[in-house]
Design brief:
Chain lengths: 114, 111
């Protein structure tokens, strides 16, 4: 069974803290993604990685950075958490382009910044 | 710019049919559909490509009008298990791995 796992389901942090969200996939996928999900806004792409050490900004990268040192692992970093980063964060992976680049999602991390 | 989904929410009785629409202001290469049940990860339903190819689950059907940049998801004889939020995601051209998702349509099926 293919799987994308995220390090925490729930996380509470204080304003100004450095936050790491981890994502691991076991499908040997080249592509990995970080989204945030907010009510009424759907899923918005924060960052995308298509290979180890390669990354591209998504639609809302401000306040975030990412790291991909190994193919199976993709980390999202909030350098200095702020209350407007309270959200659900979803990680996904997909194989390198075939025509049908289905994305597989992790269960999500609900982050609350106080 | 995110694709626009309609309706935003719909309530159906078991056995009724539903259509969920996804419309983009940009030319599209592909449209993806996902369903997210409450508290769970989004799950792939279907991909439709420019030119007519598609891949998806047998019980789900959808259409893609390339000229209008629109896609519709058809849910027939709805079951309780169809409840959830449906998202469309679009790509502008082949080789673009990044999906731009719509804001979602919440579907509630009642007995």
């Amino acid at each position: 069974d293919v799987k994308v796992t995220q390090s925490s389901r729930y996380l509470v942090k204080r304003t100004g803290e450095k936050v790491f969200l981890e994502c691991v996939q076991d499908m040997d996928h080249e592509n990995m993604f970080w989204y945030r999900q907010d009510p009424g806004l759907g899923l918005r792409l924060i960052y995308f990685s298509y290979d180890v050490k390669m990354k591209e900004k998504g639609d809302i990268p401000e306040g975030y950075s990412v790291s991909r040192e190994k193919k199976e692992r993709f980390s999202l970093i909030l350098e200095s958490a702020s209350t407007n980063q309270t959200s659900m964060y979803l990680c996904a992976s997909s194989p390198m382009t075939s025509e049908y680049n289905e994305q597989f999602f992790g269960p999500g991390t609900r982050l609350t910044v106080l | 710019q995110q694709p626009v989904q309609s309706p935003q929410a719909v309530i159906l009785r078991e056995g009724e049919d539903a259509v969920i629409n996804c419309s983009s202001s940009k030319a599209l290469y592909s449209v993806h559909w996902y369903r997210q049940k409450h508290g769970e990860a989004p799950v792939f339903l279907m991909i439709l490509l420019k030119g007519g190819e598609q891949k998806g689950h047998e019980k789900i059907s959808a259409s893609f009008n390339e000229k209008k940049q629109q896609s519709s998801l058809y849910l027939t004889a709805s079951q309780l298990s169809y409840s959830g939020t449906y998202f469309c995601g679009t790509t502008p051209h082949f080789g673009n791995e990044k999906l731009t998702f719509g804001t979602g349509t919440r579907l509630t099926i009642i007995p």
